[in-house]
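User: Assemble these into one structure.

Assistant: Restating your components, then the assembled model:
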Amino acid sequence: MTTINKQVKGPAEAVADVHDGATVMIGGFGEAGSPVELIHALIDQGAKRLTVISNNTGSGEVGLAALLKAERVSKVICSFPRTANSTVFPDLYRRGKVELELVPQGTLAERIRAGGAGIPAFYTPAAVGTPLAEGKESRVLEGKEYLLEHWLRADFALIKGRCADTHGNVVYNKTARNFGPIMAMAAKVTIVQANSVVAPGGIDPEVVVTPGIFVDRVVEVPSPQHESELVAAGAVYP
Amino acid sequence: MTTDTREIGWTRDEMARRVAIDIPNGAYVNLGIGIPELVARFVPQGRTLVYHTENGLLGMGPSPEKDRADPELINAGKRHVTALPGAAYFHHADSFAMIRGGHIDLSVLGAMQVACNGDLANWSTGEPDAIPAVGGAMDLVAGVKSVYVITQHCTKNNEPKLVERCTYPLTGRSVVNRIYTELAVIDVTPAGFALVELCPGVDLEYVRSRTGAPLLAR
């Protein structure tokens, strides 16, 4: 029996097989949980015509915003494509260079969770009676109107954790957890960058947040960059 | 009507204080971005509220000292916050299960327009060149037990924000329970807007003149 070891050498190796046209979930709420090093490796790698599923669209010209700026993304599925210092997405969107599917944040989260849990569709009360309900099937259940929403699944998920073990178990840092655990479940290949990667047993099983079954690759990034610090320093990637 | 409303009525802090008075001890509360965030500063002594931020924290505390800010500890407005003793972190699907599942007692939100049937518009002006962005507002209004709106009574151009029907795209249908403005506290009832309380020094006819739908007296 061979030992399980999901650790790969670095971000470049971790994202090497992302193909043109892939659907990629990218964790993070604003900069918290944004896997900056994995995104930069994906820019270097060159895959294009990506569909990106992420809550936001990045800020400045680093991380997710830099991936957009490099015109690698043809479609974004997100809840809030505007943030302070966010100029890249609005510019591309106005020029018709990127398609947007706007999804209420809780519906986005539940569609991802459903994708990971093998539930192809579900009913939700969010957005009933609003423009975001247009074209969606609705149904009255228990005397109230609900909208049918479909699962989201992806070819790859890029996620940031605080610590992972070589079996792929992950713990997160504070509000950087956000979409990480559900995206890990919903992608065919889940790639986690963590500040530290430890041997099995290095994480107490009682505190594991994402069990290793949902994770395919872990890569150690000991001092990850923070988007706000890069933006404040005027950094541009590449 | 050209009176500058900023010279009469409650200040923003006083509006936030007035909201805080109505929140019972022990409530689980989600505060929206902007004026709603002020409410946390004015919780009456002896009451403990638990603040939920939809990006994955219950037990949110005030902003930290600048040198203690953690870029991975933020609120829904992406501002640095703290976690109080007894706090918990969780992922986004759990966070919205708290919202959609009716576990959060109250959401305090800003508004562009509120209609007299409780319809809320607070995410888009519908202008063609605007970048649409919705965040968690539609999930919040569809799921939490009560929705309070805190807003200026009129726009900067003196257009009423309390209206017969919203002209902006809706966030939710018949979702608002109560409205706090600089002029008054107003309930949304089956019969329409109903006055709860006037700001001292403001008279009912003045509030009516700045409201775009009938306002019932108590």
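Chain B is about 15% helix and 25% strand.
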